[in-house]
Putative efflux protein, MATE family (Nitrosomonas communis), 443 residues
Amino acid sequence: MTHPTRPFTVNHRLVFGLAAPMILAYLTTPLLGVVDTAVVGRLGEAFMIGGLAVGAILVDVIFTTFNFLRSGTTGLTAQAYGREDEIEIQTTLLRSLIIGVASGIILLMFTPLLLSLGLYLMEPSETVAIATQQYVLIRMLGAPVTLGNYALLGWFIGLGKTRTGLLLQIVLNGSNIILSIFLGLHLALGIEGVAAATVMSELLAFLLGLLICYPYFKCSTWPSWLRLMDRAALWRFANLNFDIMLRSFALLFAFAFFTTQGAYLGEQTLAANAVLMNFFMLASYFLDGLTSAAEQLAGRAIGANYRDGFMRSLKLTLGWNIVMASLLATMLWILGEPMIALITTLESIQMEAAQYLLLVALLPLTGVLAFQMDGVFIGATWSRDMSRMMLVSLAAYLAAWWWLRDFANDGLWLALHVFLLVRGLTLSARLPVRIRQAFSQTK
């Protein structure tokens, strides 16, 4: 059976129209963390800052596990959009919202158990543990709407509505900042106020997202309950999400391993690595914007059965990713030392971090192909390849660290380069086969 081809224009303007709003959206996230820390820090209690840090890590790990809701929804929506299948576009969002909200309710029920496990593994002091408990118990009240927001953001990106995604992120993080200052400082609710502010802002963004997506729904294309609960579709969604979840766990393990090995090299090295990792995270926010463009265009081309559009989007997004990575690498190399001094005033840590600045500045170039391929494979919903190649890359990373361990922290950073390179190269090696399979029935 052949599938009709639905051509669409792919140009530089389209790529930037998709990428720029998401770059700005992702850049609002670290600002929120700075404000929350500043609010709690003004309370004058060190254990409160520690409780916020530990609590934020626990919550991030829990919610990162469900990142598949965003990625999976983007790929499936983009493909339905490419096929011009209005019913499936609506079905994908409703199915994702049902799964997200239901998963959030289940998480809420298991929060005490997850909190106990997290505190057991991280072993904070008693006072820090109490502050962590206050933060997590309140934050997890918003789990259903947090996961619902993942589904909404993925759906809007899949439709190419990245400006709407930017609006939702600005409302989410902007209201969070205002409410954190008001509740945490003005009402003197401290860490509990900061946590409540996040829950309230998540709810506000969720309601706004539902309001915005309402006009997209038409009674004539409203999916039936049988279609929503279609076993084959749910199984596909589950398999897709399991692979993305496995990939996310492997990625978390890789960075946790990096931090652990840095700790073994001493507190000063650990601190220097933490400072430098902020540079890589900053670069990733910029590259993630272009990754979102690659997701939408790849998924849309697959749905439209439009090979030329797929190849054109691949070429343009990769080209601009390389340009962006080059600019980021240059910026980090030139401005790296002033940025280090801005983050920490300790001269010993500044000197330690400066030793590895070149290795860190090159990370955007080393990782550019991995970011690019992630976007393409997510949009095309080739998740099995993503999880398998991530495991291969993780094995290469651990092997490289073992081989380079005598080079201490230099070896650790070089192993991270190997991890990123192998991710990009292995996925690229799978790309020609996947393209032939996806467009074998093109007219």
Q: What stands out?
A: Residues 9-229 form one domain. The chain is about 85% helix and 0% strand.
